[in-house]
Design a protein that fits this description.
By secondary structure, the chain is mostly helical. The protein has three domains: 3-67, no CATH class; 80-95 and 225-308, Orthogonal Bundle (Endonuclease Iii, domain 2), CATH 1.10.1670; 104-222, Endonuclease III, domain 1 (Orthogonal Bundle), CATH 1.10.340. Helix content is 42%, strand content 5%. It has helices spanning 3-14, 82-92, 99-103, 114-128, 133-145, 151-155, 159-166, 172-190, 198-202, 209-219, 230-238, 254-262, 270-283, and strands at residues 42-49, 60-67. The chain has a two-stranded antiparallel ribbon with strand order 1-2. Belongs to the Nth/MutY family. One of its GO terms (biological process) is base-excision repair, AP site formation. Its cofactor is [4Fe-4S] cluster.
């Protein structure tokens, strides 16, 4: 190996701050440069260094693993005073007098055996979209009184009869169709039980992320995400708890709110946050004319006394969509 070749080899070795302790002029053992898997993300640097001055010799390919810094997950800072705000809302909700406390989806089929109760929770949740808790609860009771909190019985019932029984639930005709189809799937694929994964629940027509997370939490006691409905979405924005990705702007959909909340809210608060904020939204932090004057957190809420005091006379009608 001449001096030029030796200098070239030294430069390759110095890239990694290593120089094998071998006699000068010898090509290092290729094992010194073998690829070794580690937890860090890596890139491979390659150099071709002549093994000798013989032009007919094959070059030795030296490969050395260079460590590349792993992507660091950026922690999202929790909102200021969020613990004090949350504690204040819990104190407000101690009375347990909101509709969700006695007639929410959590109460569906509460006296039934586990399997039957899970089905009742699914049906109740599917009917709850854009419908008050009191109306949904009454519809569930009506189905129960007619022996229809059972997938087999629902499949054998014609759609028109089913729709008439759950009326005046919002969009009752379409929901009757969704419930009937979901019942068939429960029978054919899950032995009469309901799906036990978010993926399978979301595959049911009329079931969106909010419903799926709620069913997983209530029916299966498996909280995988926060159930965000219109109350949780509205209140989280009023409190300044959520923002669109990479901005300081309010979220515009419940799904954006869910993802934003999950980045900082401790997991032990994921399940109780829904009924807590729903009840708060039903009694104090209402969509229109929120009762800021009687709210126990009005001194630390960034939106206190700032909401419009009168409704928009031209409210657009919304179509049915799973939430």
């Amino acid at each position: 190996m001449n001096s030029v070749e030796r200098k070239r080899l030294n430069r390759v070795l110095e890239v990694n701050d290593e120089h094998p302790k071998q006699q000068v002029g010898a090509v290092p053992d290729i094992d010194d440069f073998r690829y070794v898997k580690t937890e860090a993300k890596t890139a491979v640097s390659t150099k071709r260094v002549p093994a000798s001055s013989n032009k007919n010799s094959s070059p030795v390919r030296l490969e050395k693993k260079i460590r590349v810094s792993s992507v660091v997950k950026v922690e999202v800072a929790a909102p200021e005073n969020w613990e004090a705000v949350l504690e204040g809302i819990k104190n407000i909700r101690l009375s347990g007098q909101a509709p969700v406390d006695t007639k929410g989806c959590e109460k569906a089929g509460s006296l039934l055996p586990p399997k039957e109760r899970r089905f009742a929770v699914l049906i109740s949740t599917m009917m709850s979209s854009q419908t008050k808790d009191e109306v949904t609860h009454a519809a569930v009771e009506c189905l129960g009184e007619n022996g229809l909190l059972d997938p087999d019985a629902i499949v054998r019932t014609d759609e028109a009869t089913l729709a008439n029984l759950i009326k005046p639930v919002g969009f009752y005709q379409r929901k009757a169709q969704f419930i009937k189809e979901a019942s068939r799937i429960c029978l054919e694929r899950f032995g009469g039980d309901i799906p036990d994964t978010l993926t399978d629940l979301l595959a049911l027509k009329g079931v969106g992320p909010k419903m799926a997370h709620l069913v997983m939490s209530i029916a299966w006691k498996n909280t995988q995400g926060i159930c965000v409905d219109t109350h949780v979405h509205r209140i989280s924005n009023r409190l300044g708890w959520v923002f669109r990705e990479g901005t300081k702007q309010k979220t515009t959909t419940p799904e954006q709110t869910r993802m934003s909340l999950e980045k900082w809210l401790p997991k032990d608060e994921w399940e109780p946050i829904n009924p807590l904020l729903v009840g708060f939204g039903q009694t104090i932090c209402t969509p229109l004319r929120p009762k800021c004057g009687s709210c126990g957190i009005n001194t630390i809420c960034p939106s206190a006394f700032k909401e419009a005091s009168s409704p928009n006379p031209k409210q657009k009608k919304r179509g049915l969509g799973p939430t």
